[in-house]
Predict the 3D structure of the following.
Amino acid sequence: MYFFRIIIPLYNSEYIEKCIESIENQTFKDFIIVAVDDMSTDNTCEKVRKMAKKNSNIILLEPKKKLFIGGARNYGLHYPISTNYTLYMDNDDWFNSNTVLEELHEHIIKNNYPDCVRLPYVCESGNNRVYMGLDEDTPKKLVDSLYIAPWTKCIKSDLIVDFPENTMIEDVVQHIAQVDNIETISVFRKAVNVWNRNNKNSASLKENQATLLNGKRISSIYRNIADLMDLVCKHDYCEEHRKWRINCYKNLVREGKEETF
């Protein structure tokens, strides 16, 4: 059993070598990298294969159909390997230092193996680096946060919840469902990931969202609302947030502001 599993969905990533090197250079070595390709059309997979030949703790999975980012994460999650905790990383980001996993491992042990560890990060844009401290230490605070990226949470592997698949909007529903499935949260005070805002091809950039698979994005907006309506929450705070999200998205659709999703 590995202590950490790090799942990386891949798609045409010019930064993938920097991403994986930042993991392999960690002082703490008890981890496995599960990279899942989502039908890349460039040499991303070849780069990962070369790195995997040098590092036995890299697994490259290549499904034969388009999964989108949520489906790719699920594919890596269900690869049969035992781990204590799971982290997600986007293929154009990297760890902030070589001691991130060592310090995170120590933090988890010191805090009696919480269900979730909240992970601050650094936002890098141009020459600017801004520390983003995230301090939500209860499920209610966490579910209401606007900072919901999967890589801001380290979760016990046996508590991980799947993402919606075949959609471009996968994080909102999973965030609510994931928080609904945890009880204890500890806050890690050091930045773990560097969120790379210099990647001009990133799907998270607003200027790309209007043109990137436009028809698919529109269908994903309505799929997101439907998934939220179908989600069943066991905790009141998650149910309240679910209803709030539905109302917000319905209002945006009525106002013709789909680009804000």
DSSP finds nine helices and eleven strands in the chain. The domain at 2-197 is CATH 3.90.550.10 (Spore Coat Polysaccharide Biosynthesis Protein SpsA; Chain A). The longest strand covers residues 2-10. Confidence is low (pLDDT under 50) at residues 205-210.
